[in-house]
Amino acid sequence: MTYSDSRTRILRGLTIAAAVLFVIGLYLALFWVGPERQQGAAQRIFYVHLGSFLGSFIAFGATVAAGIAYLRTRDPRWDTFGLANVEIGLGMAAITIVTGMAWARPIWNTWWTWEPRLTSVAIMWLAYAAYLMLRSGIEDPERRQRFAAVYGIIAFASVLFTIIIIRVRPDTIHPVVAGPTQADPTGSFEVTGRIRDTLFFNLFTFAVITVVLVWHRIRLENLIQHVMRRKLEVLSEL
Amino acid sequence: MSANPEPTTHPVSAAEGAAARPAAQTARKRRPLTPFWRAVGAVAWKDLRAEIRSRELINSMVLFTFMTVMVFSLALELDKEARQTTVAGVLWVTIVFAGLIGLSRSLAAEKDRGSLDALLLAPVDRSALFFGKMLSNLLFVLVIALVLLALLTVLFNVTLLKPLLIVVVVLGTIGFTTAGTLLSSMSVHARAREAMLPIILMPVVLPVLISAVRASTAILEGLPRDDWFPWIQLLVVADVIFLAAGYGLFDYVVEE
């Protein structure tokens, strides 16, 4: 299993860049930006919360692209790409949910409440967990790749649902930061000053982290398949 | 065979269909000789006729529905107030679980009997097969839903046979059976397929389910239009998305 040196160097550079960006992003969120007026220090978790959701959104979006590309070309590499994105997206969505719960405890006085957005994000997580279940349940590799591509496309409906539900329903208590809502149909973006700068920096950071993690996961998957092929070769020689 | 009444009139096309079958690319571009909606009707009619003769599916679904309602009314110990607010949840949970029985049988029976291959060989558009299957599943679930509406009206003493509620039930079951038909055609190939269908289907249709329950509750409580209309809009959007997904993706699921 060998890769070209230049690509490995780019990946290494990106990994270091992601780590540095993450540290700077945390510094901005925890020290540089002042506490928010109403929520105080608890609001600082928001930068990681929204950042990780963007990460999962990118990853699940890429899964759809991978699914379409696989069905068109039948290139197994697209399947690996889709699988890597689902796993990283699940991790990112888990970060979103856990940070959201940590924030909700002081602000809402409960870890979890069954309101539309929380419910829909839990459904989204389950849908992609089901993707992994489906993969593990089908033995024929070609069929597994095909079904995974189809399911990766359908499961994106739950991501769309998470994003639009808060715009459809006025009874949500989840804050809406950007875009139109029931109360304010024209849409607005009220975040300004240092909070906005910190937010954008962290969004960018999490986008880079997601790309780096997916790239590493693809390499890991290739390595796994390479090892399995070698094992079979060795076994056949015995 | 009964799956396709047309082959005698187009003997050549059947051979063409068989020749084109191994290559997915050509299979998609091949021009079907049977008109699309006639093929849809033929598949749905075949399922319906088989069901009318055996009545094995509808019987088990109706019995299951009765039992589920019994369990709910025993488990929840409902007084009059509570019945008003929970009846929509009871309705939809029962529809979904009874529907799961029908959906998992629909393609599994076809595969076990080996008639799935015959269906796939028929010189019709693959998406016509999908819509035919989906239509027969939809009919079964709708029958169950109607029985359930009457049953809950009697047993829970809440009038459920309202036009608006029936619209919600139809919209909700369309979304549920469309996604269900597509996903059950995948789960029949999985290990432990009976367990696999709920796992992969539930998260996908939960948005439909939530919208349907919320709309039903709001309608039953007689709330103003603003309280249920957004949910109906969401239901329509979900139905359109699932129908489009089924139309576009079923080809890739059944090809082989």
What would you say this structure looks like, in words?
The complex is a heterodimer of chains A (238) and B (256). Chain A has helices at residues 5-32, 46-73, 76-108, 116-137, 141-168, 193-237, and strands at 178-179, 188-189. Chain A has 238 residues and is mostly helical. Chain A has one domain (15-31, 41-237). In chain A, a hairpin with an 8-residue loop joins strand 1 (178-179) and strand 2 (188-189). In chain A, helix 3 packs antiparallel against helix 4 (116-137). Chain A starts with a helix and ends with a helix. Chain B is mostly helical and 256 residues long. Chain B has one domain. Chain B is 82% helix and 0% strand. The longest helix of chain B is centred in the middle third of the chain and has 33 residues, at 80-112. Chain B starts with 10 loop residues before the first helix and ends with a helix. Chains A and B meet through helix 4 and helix 5 of A and helix 8, helix 9 and helix 10 of B.
